[in-house]
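Pilot study result, target chain (219 residues):
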Amino acid sequence: MTEQKKRRPYSSALRQEQAEATRQRIAGAARELMIRKGYADTTMAEVARAAGVAPQTLYTSAPGGKPALAKLVYDITLAGDARPLPQSDRPEVQAIIDEPDPARKLARYAAMATGILRRVQPVHRVLRAAAAASPADTRLQEVLADIEHERLKGSHGPAHHLHALGVLRPGLPPAGAAAQIYVLTSTENFEKLTEVCGWTEAEYEQWLAGILAATLLQT
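Predicted structure:
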C-alpha cells in the first residue's frame, strides 16, 4: 500500500504529460491539415492518421466532433502548448503584472499579443472562411462566437489591472478600456496591417503599444 501511494503522484504526472502530448500532437496535425486543405475538406479520420492516434482517442480529445476539434486547435495555438494552465497564470502575463511602468506594461502586453496573433491568425482565417461558406453550420458559428466572447472576457483582465493601479485616463471605465483592447488586438486588424498594408510584425507591435498607451492611459 505504501509503495502504491508513493507511485501515484508520479503516475498521475506522467499520465498528464502523456495526455498533453497527445492533445498537442492532435492539434498540430489538425492545424496543418486545416490550413492546407481548409476546414470543410479536413476529416477527423485524416487528423487521426496524421496525429498517429486512434479515432476514439481523437474523439476523446474533441468530444464534439470537428467543431470541437477546431476550438481545440485554436486554444492550443493561442496558448502555445497543451498545458491546462490559464493564460493569466503564464510567465509572460506575470511579467506584465510585475512591470511597474504603465507604458512599458502595455509594451509588454503588445509584444505578447503580437506573438499570439502570429500563431492564431492562420487558424482564425480558416475558421472565418469556413463559417462564411457554411452559415447553416451552427456549431462552427458557435465556435467563432465563443472565441470572440473569450477574447472580450480576456480583455477585461488588463483593463481592470490598469484601473486598479489608477492609471486609466479620466472618464474611461474598465469595461470601456476592455472593449478598446478587444478591438485593437483583433486578428482582423493584425491581418490587414501586416498583409494588406505590408507592415512587419515589429511595426505592428510598436503601433499596438503606442495606440494602447494613447487610448488607455492618463497623460
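One observation from the pilot: The chain has a mean pLDDT of 93. A full batch analysis is planned for the follow-on phase.
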